[in-house]
């Protein structure tokens, strides 16, 4: 702690006498400044013990009162008047003014040089800085040993709480509490969920200081709280919160920064291990989807802890075309959220990330309605541009079929501007109700516009001819009979449709899209 006026006064070698403001001697002295100006405040920063012989102060009570007011307003913590030069004793008007403003006033005897007071304060400040550096190094060594131990991040949290004389909490990348010390602080740490969630949406590293109080904590347990995100590549990998009875000191700030650095390194090291596990998990998922379940189970039992057993679902997430880069990046976060949720309850899952012809994709095989399944559904709602397709419940042996179901559901979600679509919805009836009305209208109008424009200005009803041909599954005679035209006429019209659309009607996907557009126009 910096020296206080009380510690300066207690130094018997200085022979200082307190004439006013004795109730405020616990004020910290940041520096000693000597000035004979009647207004030295432009040269002050606050926190100074000001020394003067009062050469220019005058003797009028109004002048002395104005002088004291200026010093008090500037944040001066104390005034020392040297007697024996311009003043044989401290003027009573100065004593009264200092008492009125609560400004400690010290009588400095002629035998005490100002430099002696300056040296006393400088020595105390130097001692404080040395103690801060020593304490910081000791704390760094202690925290480093904790980080390298078997408990890792949890041990760092415990040591940090003890060093700060308060409590500390560590959260994972999803904002879930993963470690807290002491144990009684779990309730307080749990009430910071909203603040952690705000930091989770900002690039790391970032921090928030809750000036004065932790939200939601009873008045008797008020804390000063600092929350810091942890991460080295702008994506938060975790969060650290500390609570103390008083605002943290500069020395405690050094200790906190050391803990943040160590926890960040620990999380990044863990991330490298997770990346290796992800590559293994992706390989296992590929084997399961290819039907090689027995082989995947044998490999996973020895190296991966086993496969998800029981009823599972396949979830496929993707970013819509033209989505912001942040949306594609959010797929990685979605996968992490699923893994963290499953890890907290010991739930096994398989995750794979890849960039395909349709952009980045995330595939998750998880227990039906398990923690990872629910985490994916929740996470996709938080990011614009992301969509999720969910398969029907199945066993591992049918995972390949479930994957195809999830992909189809994802396609419906992306086209309809929906956040998630379940396979049961796709198979329950018409596809059109699953698609947003605006999306359907825009899709149909854009695709069929060349045909409608042709029908307005030229002979031949191409839209009606296309509808009849598609409804008869490409059977020329049946479609021509429905239209009341010769099949050669219908063939000519279909060639004209292909020319105007620039697409081949031999393509099954093209036929599906045209039928969807025609049906949308009927709704």
UniProtKB/TrEMBL annotation:
Domain PucR C-terminal helix-turn-helix per the UniProt entry, residue ranges: 462-520
UniProt cross-references to Pfam families, sorted A to Z: HTH_30 (PF13556), PucR (PF07905)
Domain called Purine catabolism PurC-like: residue spans: 8-125
Superkingdom, natural source: Bacteria
UniProt-listed PANTHER family: CARBOHYDRATE DIACID REGULATOR (PTHR33744), DNA-BINDING TRANSCRIPTIONAL ACTIVATOR ADER (PTHR33744:SF1)
Protein name per its UniProtKB record: PucR family transcriptional regulator
Species the sequence originates in: Kitasatospora cystarginea
């Amino acid at each position: 702690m910096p020296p206080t006026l009380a510690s300066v006064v207690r130094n018997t070698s200085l022979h200082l006498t307190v004439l006013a403001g004795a109730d405020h001697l616990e004020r910290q002295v940041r520096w000693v400044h000597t000035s004979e100006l009647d207004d030295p405040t432009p040269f002050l920063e606050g926190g100074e013990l000001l020394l003067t012989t009062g050469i220019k102060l005058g003797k009028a009570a109004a002048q002395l009162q104005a002088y004291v007011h200026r010093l008090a307003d500037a944040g001066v913590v104390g005034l020392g008047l040297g007697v024996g030069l311009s003043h044989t004793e401290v003027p009573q008007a100065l004593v009264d003014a200092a008492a009125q403003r609560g400004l400690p006033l010290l009588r400095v005897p002629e035998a005490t040089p100002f430099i002696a007071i300056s040296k006393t304060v400088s020595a105390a400040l130097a001692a404080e800085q040395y103690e801060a550096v020593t304490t910081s190094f000791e704390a760094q060594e202690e925290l480093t040993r904790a980080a390298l131990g078997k408990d890792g991040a949890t041990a760092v949290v415990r040591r940090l709480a003890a060093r700060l004389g308060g409590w500390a909490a560590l959260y994972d990348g999803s904002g879930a509490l993963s470690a807290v010390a002491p144990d009684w602080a779990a309730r307080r740490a749990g009430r910071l969920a909203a603040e952690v969630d705000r930091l989770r949406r900002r690039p790391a590293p970032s921090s928030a200081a809750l000036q004065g109080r932790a939200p939601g904590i009873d008045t008797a347990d008020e804390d000063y709280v600092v929350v810091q995100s942890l991460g080295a590549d702008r994506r938060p990998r975790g969060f650290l919160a500390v609570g103390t009875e008083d605002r943290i000191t500069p020395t405690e700030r050094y200790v906190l920064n050391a803990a943040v650095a160590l926890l960040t390194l620990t999380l990044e090291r863990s991330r490298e291990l997770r990346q290796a596990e992800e590559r293994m998990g992706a390989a296992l998922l590929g084997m399961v989807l290819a039907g090689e379940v027995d082989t995947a189970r044998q490999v996973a039992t020895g190296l991966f802890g086993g496969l998800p057993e029981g009823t599972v679902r396949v979830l496929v997430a993707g970013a819509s075309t033209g989505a912001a880069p942040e949306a594609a990046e959010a797929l990685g976060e979605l996968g992490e959220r699923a893994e963290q949720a499953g890890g907290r309850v010991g739930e096994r899952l398989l995750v794979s990330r890849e960039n395909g012809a349709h952009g980045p994709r995330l595939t998750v095989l998880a227990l039906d309605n398990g923690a990872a399944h629910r985490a994916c559904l929740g996470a996709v709602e938080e990011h614009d541009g992301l969509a999720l397709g969910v398969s029907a419940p199945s066993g591992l042996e049918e995972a390949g079929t479930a994957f195809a179901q999830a992909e189809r559901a994802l396609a419906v979600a992306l086209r309809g501007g929906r956040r998630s679509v379940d396979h049961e919805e796709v198979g329950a009836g018409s596809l059109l109700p699953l698609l947003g009305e605006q999306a359907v209208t825009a899709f149909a109008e854009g695709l069929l516009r060349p045909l409608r424009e042709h029908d307005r200005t030229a002979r031949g009803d191409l839209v009606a001819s296309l509808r009849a041909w598609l409804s008869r599954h490409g059977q020329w005679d049946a479609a021509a009979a429905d239209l009341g035209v010769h099949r050669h006429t219908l063939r000519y019209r279909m060639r004209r449709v292909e020319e105007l659309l620039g697409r081949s009607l031999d393509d099954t996907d093209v036929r599906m899209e045209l039928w969807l557009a025609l049906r949308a126009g009927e709704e």
